[in-house]
Amino acid sequence: MNRYPSQPLILSGNKPYGLSLTYRHLPEKNPKKALRDLTKLFDPQKGIFGLGEPLVSAFSRKIPGLRTFPGLSGINCSSPSTQGSLWFFLQGDDRGDIFDQTERLSDILGDVFAPDDQIDTFLYSGGKDLSGYEDGTENPDGEKAAEVAIIEEGMGLSGSSLVAVQRWIHDLKHFRTHSQKERDNMIGRKQDTNEELHDASPTAHVKRSAQESYSPSAYMLRRSMPWALNFQQGLEFIAFGKTLDPFENVLRRMMGLDDGITDALFTFSRPVRGGYYWCPPITGDRLDLRFLLE
Ligand code: HEM
User: What are the sequence ranges of the domains in the chain?
Assistant: First the structure.
């Protein structure tokens, strides 16, 4: 049960097709009317919506816990920030429906916000990353998912969530040059059975990211989706939380910033974009932006 009025797709999970879309706001334009129109016209059953710090600051407001995605340098790896003002994760069973929604959004936002980036995402093989490994096994579910991802308190804040969105580009050709055993050891799970390898190398992704090994624990609700475009492919990594700390702490450890050990994922994949957003709650079946607009 969803006790707090959160955007429904956060907890219900992804549909087969997605579109991750970011906009920047045009500095000389007043965003209030476009955002008001968005609250009236955007259907939260068809996508998730978030606002970035650059836009929130323009209202001289502060959302607790929302900050700008940090650019980080780690051991033999880096993670850039491409912080945007608005983020949408449109979803549907039909790509055509997503196209229609995108057109509608540009009518609502077009005079005040400029599209910055978009990428089509899709469900692969029932929920796997393109490397062939199940993604999301250790995700919290049911009540625990809401507990991890949905903010409970605060006028205009209750039901909202914070999200990290990070695009990764894979080099699958390179990944496949490794034996099956080596690949399993990089992820820390067996590809065929999804069984966890307890004796995997400390560089294995699930060893680096084990949520209960952090203090405080680093639980997050992952809703990532694969993408493939123009002979490139990868993962649109998306993780919701009450705070952004679990994501950032895991990312830092993956990058070797805790203990000098870099996650084996970086041997075949690298992040190329990153943004943090606040996903407002809903009232009835519409977005609730009272925290910003009133
Ligand atoms: C190329 C990008 C990535 C790929 C392909 C990937 C893939 C996977 C896979 C296959 C698993 C094991 C199954 C599961 O529990 O979901 C996993 C677990 C996990 N990943 Fe990632 N991941 C990526 C990036 C990230 C990033 C950037 C973070 C956070 C900063 C992250 C956090 C986690 C967490 C928290 C777990 C569960 C660990 C546990 O508690 O056992 N992943 N990932």
Answer: 8-293
